[in-house]
Design a protein that fits this description.
The protein is an alpha/beta fold. Helix content is 59%, strand content 6%. Strand 6 and strand 7 form a beta hairpin. It folds into 2 domains: 381 residues, no CATH class; 160 residues, 3-Layer(aba) Sandwich (Rossmann fold). It is globular and about 90 Å long. The strands form 2 sheets. The protein has a 5-stranded mixed beta sheet with strand order 4-3-5-7-6. Strands 1-2 form a two-stranded antiparallel sheet.
């Protein structure tokens, strides 16, 4: 393919510094929030084990076989600055700025500085990327290393390609998808006839040198297999498992290999890649803009004596982006128990880049279109969509942490010695003060969730706890865009672990208690339920209808 290196580009250090300042200011109100969901459940405990014990394999949580690079990055910050959510989130913001610098550099190499600025801006403001920027997860870091690797790939720097892709794989194992996809792409181009190969790769070569040059390009993208294989070998030697504990493997791989589930997950992944949280504005605008002729720049006409159309990303480069995006869509539909949008972070910025480049090429006033898209992305930080989504995909995660911080602070102050019935991740939030929710450990009784079946089972064991902390385990719209389809709900229960949480008042009645604290923000809620004294409960039990008369559809 043809490299399009710009000699007048700004220095990467200046780009990084500008981006870091910008996103740090945007995230200031979020930096001291306690840890949220998977942060509290895996990544922070894993990093803490590395800090305290020097162990790459976590002990205070079940190992998921994720490579330790990002956890080591967090531990480095803890050692230098100190252990605190502020330090953790600052470390992740540095990684986010590094990732945005990578997408800026890639866009600049394949397009120009204007497209690079707009791409970096839209990526930074895209709700999923924005929310993940300060969360201690590994997906954004893996995406950032992938962007730097793709930039080196189009610049034909094989050593840098091998290094960046290796770091991406050590950030998260699924990042190996991009280099393996490029290796397959190079092999596909190798077996193509010379004319077709030249069209796909943007270069022509004599048949004699084709094989040698292909090997030179394939070898660097296969190098990341070595460090990833060594990590899995080490993990197996220490735990007896290659890809994490058996339950993790079953949930994320074995239980997902169903043709119907794959088709459903594929549709969700396509939506996340091209339409999720206002991304459809960009992709629809791109498709409509392609109906228009390219814009002719007057300056180019005057200088060259003939019309000069605005440039586009070279077709061979666009094809590379397309195969990488397709690989992520298909692979992430095939594996992964939870269809989380953050798993698509290595792919979505490539879609944004092509969309921005197309708008610039086809619209004379393209900055106005980019401004509208940017504002729509910002609106999606605060506005929950009329369809199911994960709270970690916008500022709904802030609502969750603030409500849980208030509820668990209330519970700790009023019931310091109580046994508390709750579900994960609140069970970890209460039992582990270093997650930022309580000042000392609280004794917990764990249940799976707050579905009707689980709450009814807990009611039979009410003598084991004095208080219950119930909360919404998902953010669902009150009025879904497509209404409530019973068939779709059944499919979600079957393939994606879906359940409906009982409202606090219903849970309190079943458990035999009364609500002493409650909070609600948009589609999320939390409540503390105090169990009734035994003599009062015995009197109420005579009035309570049998469990079979509680129809699930009422909840």
């Amino acid at each position: 393919m043809i490299s399009t290196i710009r000699t007048s580009s700004p220095h990467p250090a200046l780009v990084f510094a500008a981006i870091l300042v910008g996103i740090f200011l945007l995230h200031l109100p979020l930096l001291q929030l306690p840890y949220f969901w998977d942060e509290a459940g895996y990544y922070v405990p894993a990093a803490r084990d590395l800090l305290l014990r020097g162990s790459l394999i976590p002990h205070t949580t079940v190992s998921n076989a994720h490579p330790p690079l990002v956890m080591a990055w967090i531990v480095l910050w803890w050692k230098v600055v100190g252990y605190a959510p502020l330090v953790t989130r600052s470390a992740m913001l540095v990684m986010a700025a590094f990732s945005l610098t990578g997408i800026f550099r890639l866009a600049e190499r394949v397009a120009n500085t204007q497209v690079a600025i707009a791409t970096a801006l839209c990526t930074a403001l895209y709700p999923v990327f924005f929310a993940q920027s300060s969360l201690a997860h590994v997906d954004l870091a893996a995406a950032g290393f992938t962007f730097w690797a793709l930039s080196a790939y189009v610049e034909k720097r094989p050593v840098a390609v091998a290094v960046w892709f290796s770091l991406a794989a050590l950030a998260k194992e699924t990042a190996i998808l991009a280099p393996l996809t490029l290796a397959c792409w190079e092999l596909f181009c190798l077996v193509m006839p010379q004319r077709g190969r030249a069209a796909l790769q943007g270069r022509a070569s004599d048949p004699g040198s084709r094989r040698a040059s292909a090997l030179v390009r394939i070898f660097p993208v296969l190098v990341p297999l070595l460090p990833l294989t060594l990590w899995f070998a080490y993990h197996y030697a220490r735990t007896g498992y290659v890809f994490g504990n058996p339950e993790f493997f079953r949930y994320n791989v074995a239980s997902t290999l169903n043709p119907l589930r794959f088709l459903l997950a594929l549709a969700l992944r396509l939506w996340q890649a091209f339409g999720y949280l206002h991304l459809w504005l960009l992709t629809t605008g791109m498709l409509l803009a392609m109906l228009l002729p390219p814009v002719t720049d007057e300056a180019g006409t005057a200088a060259l004596g003939s019309p000069l159309e605005r440039g586009r990303i070279a077709i061979p480069v666009q094809l590379i982006f397309a195969v990488v995006v397709c690989a992520y869509v298909i692979a992430m539909a095939l594996i992964g128990g939870a269809v989380l949008a953050r798993y698509m972070l290595p792919a979505v910025p490539l879609v944004i880049m092509v969309g921005v480049s197309t708008l610039r090429r086809r619209l004379r006033y393209w900055p106005a279109a980019i401004a509208v898209i940017a504002l729509a992305f910002v609106a999606a930080w605060f506005w929950d969509p009329p369809y199911g989504f994960s709270p970690e995909d916008n500022l709904a995660y802030r609502d969750y942490t603030v409500m849980h911080e208030d509820a668990e602070g209330f519970l700790e102050a009023r019931y310091p010695m109580a046994h508390v019935l709750t579900a994960w991740p609140a069970s970890d939030e209460l039992a582990r003060p270093w997650l930022g929710y309580t000042t000392r450990p609280v004794q917990v009784v764990r249940i799976e969730d707050f579905s009707l079946e689980e709450v009814l089972s807990a009611a039979d064991l009410r003598q084991n706890f004095e208080v219950a902390l119930v909360f919404s385990t998902k953010d669902e719209p009150a009025r879904p865009l497509l209404g409530r389809w019973r068939t779709w709900d059944e499919l979600k229960r079957r393939f994606f672990g879906y359940h409906r949480d009982l409202p606090p008042a219903v849970a309190a009645r079943i458990l035999g208690g009364h609500i002493v604290f409650s909070a609600q923000r948009k589609g999320q809620w939390v409540a503390v339920i105090e169990m009734e004294r035994e003599e009062m409960q015995n009197a109420k039990d005579t009035e309570r209808p049998p469990s079979g008369s509680w129809p699930y559809d009422q909840f």
